[in-house]
């Protein structure tokens, strides 16, 4: 029998509908009138069209921008799968509030407000921790027991949805996703292995710089954890509860929240993309509301985006996390929208409009 949080999650998911195709068609039609060569801004034009479908109108603006950073610890760190200990999660989380991390400086340039969320850190950070968002103080060691209960996984997903609900009420137009949690490339690789039906060796990388020996240990831990718990790939909550992380579950909720409240949500790197895949498995229509920033250097980074049928906007060999790739792409999206909204049309500059031979070229 489903619990209270799972039932609420199911009710929220049932309210999600696909992006608005008419708004997308209207935006595509407007692009053809803009006084420049057709399709010459490539993916930026596609992004503007996609956001029109998300917002439900071809006439929209990007005003307030936010970065939601889910912070959580992972019990599997006890197995030596990382270079650093759990104490680093709390240190970095606090630094988010002090303008003392890489993504803080990048977000400042992009004009995005930071919202670090303690969804499951082992230690409380007064400037970050709020009881209404904290599900538990770190997950269990998945090598020996499920990372969390099914209800805790459902609550974590709902926490992400509630965060978007709050920001939607504050009139945020665009959200980026980030995370902080020592050991989360291990949990993300485990979830990816299950959902993509891959062996641990195919999807697992060195994370923040493991040695060859450390990588072998990481792969072994993931393989043994999956073998112990037998997570059901058709049941995302089962996968998250057994071999996942609270940050992944929370970010999955952010993607679902974006779909529920019609706000574009930018995927960051590997951890964020695994969360996006979880959201899409829970509700396929939610994929319409996702915007990929970059391709992670982790082995499964490209695999996950392929499974989502999404192509990244930039390829900068970034692997920092925290939402750095997601905020890096915000100025590009705003540039594309500026051309779409403000550039003169062919009629206005008295130039004959380009003919569209795109369909003809496709048939050749």
TrEMBL record:
It catalyses: 5,6-dimethylbenzimidazole + nicotinate beta-D-ribonucleotide = alpha-ribazole 5'-phosphate + nicotinate + H(+). Keywords: Cobalamin biosynthesis, Glycosyltransferase, Transferase. Its EC number is 2.4.2.21. One of its GO terms (biological process) is cobalamin biosynthetic process. GO terms for molecular function: nicotinate-nucleotide-dimethylbenzimidazole phosphoribosyltransferase activity. InterPro entries: Nict_dMeBzImd_PRibTrfase, Nict_dMeBzImd_PRibTrfase_bact, Nict_dMeBzImd_PRibTrfase_N, Nict_dMeBzImd_PRibTrfase_sf. Pfam families: DBI_PRT. Pathway: Nucleoside biosynthesis; alpha-ribazole biosynthesis; alpha-ribazole from 5,6-dimethylbenzimidazole: step 1/2. The keyword Transferase applies. Catalyzes the synthesis of alpha-ribazole-5'-phosphate from nicotinate mononucleotide (NAMN) and 5,6-dimethylbenzimidazole (DMB). Belongs to the CobT family. This is Nicotinate-nucleotide--dimethylbenzimidazole phosphoribosyltransferase. It comes from Candidatus Mediterraneibacter faecavium. The gene is cobT.
